[in-house]
Amino acid sequence: MYADLREKVAVVTGGSKGLGSAIAIRFGCEGMSIVVNYHTDEGGAQNAVRAIRDAGGRACAVQADIGSEDGVRRLRDAAASEYGRLDVWVNNAGMENRSPTDKLALEDWNQVINTNLTGVFLGSKCALEHFVENDKPGCIINMSSVHEKIPWPTFAHYAASKGGVELFTKTIALEYADRGIRANCIGPGAINTPINKEKFADPEQYDTTVSMIPMGRIGEPEDVASAAAWLASEEARYVTGITLFVDGGMALYPSFQYGNG
C-alpha cells in the first residue's frame, strides 16, 4: 500500500473490464477516487465502481469515446466536478484484431490506431493541460505492450500503435519533466483478461503461450495493477520515460533461456 495515494484522484480509461478494471479497483484499495471510463459496457463499469467503493475508495462511471477530444474532456471535467482535483491519468483503453497485413483494411487500421494511439495522445494532452494550467505535478501512465518491442505478424496495426505509444510517452516525459510531471508506460505480456479468454480456453494455444514466458505462467490483471499503483505513487517519484514490462520475461528473447543459440 502507498499512503501518499490516499485522497488522490485518477482517471482510468477502459475501466469496465480487464486491466482497466483491475487498476481502478487497486487504486480504490489505496483510498483513491477514480473516474471509471467506459465506452459501451456500462454494466462492467458499474461493477468496478461498486468494487472500488467496497475497497474504501470513491468512484463514478463516465461514458466517453476516448478517441475524441470531447470524450476525454468529459473525463477530466468529471474528476474536477466530482472530486475537485486530478493527479493521475491512466490511458488504458485499447483494442486489437488480426489480419495479414496485405489484407488489412484501412478501416481496421484506423480504428486500432485511433483507439490505441490517438486515444493515448488525447488523454495525455488533456491531463497535461490540467497539470500545466494548475501548475501542479502529475502522473500519466500509458498502457503499451510487449509488442512495442516484439514484432507481431498479422497484428501490424496493433504493434505500430504500441510502438508509437512508447516513443510518444518518452517524448512527453522529457518535455514535462522539469514541471514535475511524470509519464511512463506499462508493457503487459500475456495476461488473463477477457480479450484473451477465447485463446486461453484452447489448451494448445494456452500451452504455446506459456512456453513463450520464462516464468512459466500467464499473468493476472492484478500483476499489472500493482505496477500501476507503484508508478502512480511517490515511491516512483524519480521514474519517468520508461516502459515497465509486466510479462514474466516474455520480452527477454525466451528462446535463448537455456543457453540456446
UniProtKB/TrEMBL annotation:
Native organism: Raoultibacter massiliensis
Pfam family, one: adh_short_C2
Keyword Isomerase: no
Keyword set includes Oxidoreductase: yes
Enzyme class: oxidoreductase
InterPro entries according to UniProt: NAD(P)-bd_dom_sf (IPR036291), Sc_DH/Rdtase_CS (IPR020904), SDR_fam (IPR002347)
The entry's keywords: Oxidoreductase
PANTHER family in the record: OXIDOREDUCTASE, SHORT-CHAIN DEHYDROGENASE/REDUCTASE FAMILY (AFU_ORTHOLOGUE AFUA_5G02870) (PTHR43639), SHORT-CHAIN DEHYDROGENASE_REDUCTASE FAMILY PROTEIN (PTHR43639:SF1)
Superkingdom of source: Bacteria
Family designation: Belongs to the short-chain dehydrogenases/reductases (SDR) family.
Enzyme Commission code: 1.1.1.47
Gene3D superfamilies: NAD(P)-binding Rossmann-like Domain (3.40.50.720)
An example Gene Ontology molecular-function term: glucose 1-dehydrogenase [NAD(P)+] activity
Protein's name in the database: Glucose-1-dehydrogenase
Organismal lineage: Bacteria, Bacillati, Actinomycetota, Coriobacteriia, Eggerthellales
